[in-house]
Amino acid sequence: MELHEFFIVVAITIGLVSVCKSLINFVRWVWAMFLRPPRDLKEYGSWAIITGSTDGIGKALAFEMASKGLNLVLVGRNPSKLEATSKGIRDNCHEPVKVKSIVIDLAKVSGEQIAKTIEEGIKGLDVGILVNNAGVTYPYARFFHEVDLELMESIIKVNMEAPTWVTRAVLPGMIKKKKGAIINIGSDLSEDPSLPLYTLYAASKSYLKIFSRCISLEYKEHGIDIQCQAPRFVATEMTSHLKSLPLLIASLEKFSKASIRWIGYDHLCNPYWSHSVQGFMIHACPDALVNALSFWICSTLRNRGQMKETQ
Fold first, then answer.
1. Which residues are within 8 A (CB) of 311 and not within 5 positions of it... i.e. 6 or more apart?
2. Active site residue 219
3. What string of pLDDT tens digits covers the 311 residues of the chain?
4. Which of 96, 91, 61, 92 is nearest to 75 (CA)?
5. In sequence order, what are the beta bridge partners of 250?
6. In the structure, how many helices (H) and strands (E) does the chain have?
7. Which of 168, 223, 234, 301 has the greatest number of CB atoms lying within 10 Å of its CB?
């Protein structure tokens, strides 16, 4: 075999291996997104605790878990919203479920007080699932120095400190019975090269990702499945300023159903198929291009927000 023929064979072989690898990854993605059977959540325990459960993703997950027969501990700061959500679950759920509420403002109390309140609220309950969903972001895009101190403190406490302390409060019970699942709701935006003008929010979600990864390794041998779900845009109040981009946003119902299907599997996932495709396309682009587009889009959102604020 001549030298040029050898190089042709090598090139063809490398190409075939690359195509086969991509095909296998695609088949695995289809299996995970659409065909893989979900776990029986009741095997973890009869109760699930959800923070930020009166609006958005948390509320949608509460209804979805109740439909699976799980009793719920709803954590929120507004007693009337908690009561309304509890009543809605009881009235609409086909299976009889118990609903308990814990009133606490995660942005206002210390970490120790968060842990103590949660421990007291779940005492005697067979808590099998924890969903750390509560989160805070900017009303609209802004430079880091424009973030007021109160908002900065809220983002740090709610997005990072609160899930840390709530997890600390729930873990001992799961360790004792050697089973459980913890789901931290992060953001796939933290996987992008950058998210300018939402710096603190992106950084807080990156914290959740590495926090989840580390404790997943620590407690895997205890039978506890710990996962960070990192969606992109979901139709909540936090994304209300993105209504002009409907193709990028998942409905709460679709996301909550997808979210449930992933519990107990990978330590990091993007549960909704459309978000996964968006992430794949973005991560395939050069970082410089993504950074430039991100800054342009976020600068536009900042200008719109400032104009709306001054009206």
1. none
2. no
3. 566 777 777 788 888 888 899 899 999 999 999 999 999 999 999 999 999 999 999 999 999 999 999 999 999 999 999 999 999 999 888 778 999 999 999 999 999 999 999 999 999 999 999 999 999 999 999 999 999 999 999 999 999 999 999 999 999 999 999 999 999 999 998 888 999 999 999 999 999 999 999 999 999 999 999 999 999 889 876 666 555 565 678 889 999 999 999 999 999 999 999 999 999 999 899 999 999 999 999 999 999 999 988 87
4. 61
5. 234
6. 10, 9
7. 234
